[in-house]
Design a protein that fits this description.
Two copies of one chain form a homodimer.
Chain A (H helix, E strand, L loop, with lengths): L5 H18 L1 H10 L3 H9 L3 E2 H7 L5 H13 L3 E6 L5 E6 L1 H33 L4
Antiparallel strand pairs in A: 1-3, 2-3
Helix pairs in contact in A: 3-6
Chain B binds a DNA duplex through α4 and α5.
Amino acid sequence: MATMTAAQRREQARLEYDAFIKGCPTNQLLDRLSDKWVSLVVAALAAGPMRYSDLGRKLAGVSPKMLTQTLRSLERDGILTREVTPSVPVRVDYELTPLGHSLSLLLTAVKDWAETHIEQVHEARERYDSVQDV
Amino acid sequence: MATMTAAQRREQARLEYDAFIKGCPTNQLLDRLSDKWVSLVVAALAAGPMRYSDLGRKLAGVSPKMLTQTLRSLERDGILTREVTPSVPVRVDYELTPLGHSLSLLLTAVKDWAETHIEQVHEARERYDSVQDV
DNA sequence: CGGTATCCCTCCTGATACTG
DNA sequence: CAGTATCAGGAGGGATACCG
């Protein structure tokens, strides 16, 4: 039963590579950061703890579903802590952990790179777009 | 015609915030990096120029469509150059620009953070997951 | 070799309405 | 206040087949 079609072989290569990528810390991190709201939440909390509804207001346009989903995943990853104060009405505070603050430093590095080089990127785009039909 | 429903107001806030996010260099950059293949292409090319099919082999499992799409967008952003040698058969080389090398340094910083802290993240996940039903 | 064109299908997003 | 449950809509990813 030797034979494997080319398609099957490629499929297997793809699966192996997918597994490799999933196991790669860098890609796990990039996956995380690429979540639309993650960097915004981390940036917002870098300044200090916030309540759920404060975050909801600060990140205008986020739906409760996405906010909760984002916060839960960050809590799971140890980026922030969730503290419930069982008063009436309930109060829930979110705060970055040391790990979260470390991440926010990385985000600052990303931000710095972006701000330093975005102009070059925009220039490159204009150049590229203007040459399309020559 | 003063009245705007709550839904309309939120909709507008969302649109404004979306515009803000789209204009934010950091988010533009994160958007870029979050493309599944971008970081892999940049990392591959950091070691030196490569041909199209070399990249296709190195990034096992990438479809020609996605590879081309990724390369084109990076070329447009001035991250890499595309050089066609009109021999037979055709030969196309891709190479990082100085801007691209600069970006690869940032990716190295991301990679370093990931490798340094991924263990803490995994521990946090295990802790979180194991407490789910207590 | 180095792509382009097409279709499909999945996942994610966000709107909405409801609960403790 | 701080969420959860449900549903639909659309963008993007990938497989495939074909061109210069």
